[in-house]
Amino acid sequence: MPGLLVEILEYLEREGPQAPGDVVAALRAPRYRVLAAFHCLEELGLAVPLYSRGSYRIYQISEAGRQLLRQAQEQGGLALALQSALEQGRPPEAEVGA
Length: 98
Fold this sequence. Notes:
Blueprint: H1 2-15, H2 20-27, H3 31-44, E1 47-53, E2 56-61, H4 63-75, H5 78-87
Antiparallel strand pairs: 1-2
């Protein structure tokens, strides 16, 4: 799943706001995994809904998501970037105002 989270963040960064269904088609990933990944990204504050109507949502990457994505690319993976953020005593969403 961590690889899929990074792929989704990279896709949102590159292509802009997207509905999960569009991400499923673009990344050729199972729908249930993409939906679960978006739920995780939203809970962590790394992706935020730009539009919501019923169960339909369009998400965009948040500033915290951009920062974490840059750290993941620099440090060689999402797990290392998250570990680094936690060791510094601040979760990724705390970096929004940084």
